[in-house]
């Protein structure tokens, strides 16, 4: 299971200096906090936790200064919660004069399972340079060690590779200076009657906080990039919590400032050492630029932003509509695929059609706000594309949408047609009723990104009990397995699933998984929905 990205070496980008300047003007001043390690722990087998791996406390952190470590000794520090920032500690020698350098290793982990994995055994397709570990030599002690690289972790394993027979090493005052564009103290957390939903909400806030950095990162461990798919969901979660509209504007302007010569927006951009667009292009991600702009304008009307970015949004739609044939069918190409989910185990064409309808409706709303004389043309296109979906893709026998030449039935197709409200409200509810009846439990999907859309489709269809049940069974299950923040990938049937072949490369704090805060805010708080626990 894994999505294949196209490599485009002949793509040429334009850089709009004015839009880049506006993006820079919204760069956040990061907030910092000094956090001390809380305790010394050891790994222990725990079949209730991820990969049967947990920790047990063996000492208070103040005992660390009393531990004299020599070759092959190790100690694991627990900071008590997920942290993103720069690590430091004091190091000194005890015993005879120091007659050799200190050689030791630091390994940072978001989950205990990472510490149980051996770095040297990793042989996946993703670069092993993402493994969070450092091999260090210190020639003279005492020293104040301050690592320049930012890490994302809760646990730090220190392994002494060697001192000498004459002296030992002592580590003291392990700390991390955390960083984020926001602070969780600014969020008024709702009081929900259901304690499990309360916890699900709190972990979502923490996940979002740690991914809000210089931009909305996809993950602070890796890739540390601004991806459109993640940004769309992060922005919605942000409106429900931190309400940091400046960071949303910064990210919108970054994408808008660096399209290709044919107008397409890349799926992601790098911001270090300078703003650089990636050469990955996904049709649904480009269309979601429209969604992000429309969602932002709905939350915070801003004519300047709309004036600046509407032409870029319009270009994304125009490029997409060129892929629609005379019958109204979206014909996806290999060089401009849709993502939908990491999995390639299902046909994605009907889900792509649903996303086009979803974003076209949002675009028409923007076009009307801009008094665009072309609005009627887009309304006609919407009618054509929607009629193709209802007449050609909807199967009256199964009461579900089919996808591809084999008329495949899959969850993603139903979800995106439901979110796009291709059918009337009663028919949308029946669509999701049949989805639950025929296609649940969900198989072949392993990302919170897609699970978010399934859950939201259930809410949109008025199926609150089913939506809450899925939220608890998915995000709640991660918490049961030991999550402090939500993960990039998770399959409830295979909790140890990794797209990369090893837990050590998984991102256990990932932006697209933070959305329970949005779902709870929109469907259980703002709409005043009653529900049974």
TrEMBL record:
Limits of the Glycosyl hydrolase family 78 alpha-rhamnosidase N-terminal domain: 38-176
Signal peptide interval: none
Full protein name: Alpha-L-rhamnosidase
InterPro entries, per database record: 6-hairpin_glycosidase_sf, 6hp_glycosidase-like_sf, Bac_rhamnosid6H, Glyco_hydro_78_N
GO biological process assignments: carbohydrate metabolic process
Species in which this protein is naturally found: Secundilactobacillus pentosiphilus
Alpha-L-rhamnosidase six-hairpin glycosidase domain sequence ranges: 194-520
Gene3D superfamilies: 1.50.10.10
Annotated Pfam families: Bac_rhamnosid6H, Glyco_hydro_78_N
């Amino acid at each position: 299971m894994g999505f294949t990205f196209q490599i485009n070496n002949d793509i040429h980008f334009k850089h709009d200096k004015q839009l880049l300047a506006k993006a820079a003007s919204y760069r956040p001043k990061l907030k910092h906090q000094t956090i001390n390690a809380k305790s010394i722990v050891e790994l222990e087998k725990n079949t209730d936790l991820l990969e049967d791996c947990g920790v047990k406390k063996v000492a208070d952190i103040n005992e660390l200064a009393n531990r004299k470590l020599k070759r092959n000794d190790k100690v694991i520090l627990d900071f008590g919660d997920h942290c993103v920032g720069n690590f430091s500690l004091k190091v000194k020698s005890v015993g005879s004069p120091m007659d050799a350098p200190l050689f030791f290793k630091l390994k940072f982990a978001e989950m205990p399972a990472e510490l149980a994995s051996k770095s040297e055994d990793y042989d996946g397709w993703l670069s092993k340079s993402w493994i969070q570990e450092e091999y260090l030599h210190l020639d003279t002690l005492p020293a104040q060690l301050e690592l320049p690289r930012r890490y994302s972790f809760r646990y730090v394993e220190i392994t002494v590779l060697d001192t000498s027979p004459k002296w030992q090493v002592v580590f003291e005052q392990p700390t991390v200076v955390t960083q984020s564009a926001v602070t969780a103290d600014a969020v008024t957390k709702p009081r929900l009657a259901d304690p499990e939903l309360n916890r699900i909400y709190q972990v979502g806030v923490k996940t979002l906080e740690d991914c809000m950095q210089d931009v909305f990162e996809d993950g602070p461990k890796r890739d540390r990039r601004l991806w459109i798919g993640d940004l769309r969901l992060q922005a919605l979660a942000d409106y429900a919590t931190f309400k940091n509209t400046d960071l949303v504007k910064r990210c919108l302007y970054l994408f808008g400032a660096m399209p290709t010569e044919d107008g397409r927006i890349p799926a992601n951009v790098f911001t270090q050492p300078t703003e650089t667009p990636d050469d990955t292009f996904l049709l649904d991600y480009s269309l979601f630029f429209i969604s992000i702009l429309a969602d932002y304008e709905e939350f915070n009307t801003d004519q300047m932003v709309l004036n600046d970015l509407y032409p870029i949004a319009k270009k994304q739609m125009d490029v997409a509509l060129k892929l629609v044939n005379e019958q109204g069918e979206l014909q996806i190409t290999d060089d401009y695929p849709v993502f939908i989910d990491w999995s390639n185990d299902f046909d994605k064409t009907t889900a792509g059609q649903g996303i086009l309808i979803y974003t076209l409706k949002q675009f028409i709303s923007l076009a009307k706000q801009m008094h665009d004389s072309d609005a009627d043309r887009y309304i006609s296109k919407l009618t054509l594309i929607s009629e193709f979906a209802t007449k050609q893709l909807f199967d009256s026998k199964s009461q579900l949408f089919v996808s591809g030449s084999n008329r495949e039935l899959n969850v993603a197709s139903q979800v995106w047609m439901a979110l796009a409200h291709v059918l009337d409200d009663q028919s949308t509810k029946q669509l999701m009723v049949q989805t639950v009846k025929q296609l649940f439990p969900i198989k072949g999907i392993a990302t919170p990104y897609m699970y978010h859309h399934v859950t939201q489709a259930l809410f949109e269809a008025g199926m609150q009990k089913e939506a809450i049940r899925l939220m608890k069974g998915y995000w709640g299950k991660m918490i049961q397995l030991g999550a402090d923040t939500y993960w990039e990938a998770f399959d409830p049937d295979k909790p140890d699933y990794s797209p990369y072949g090893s837990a050590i490369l998984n991102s256990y704090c990932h932006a697209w998984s933070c959305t329970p805060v949005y779902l709870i805010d929109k469907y259980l708080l703002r709409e005043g929905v009653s529900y049974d626990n």
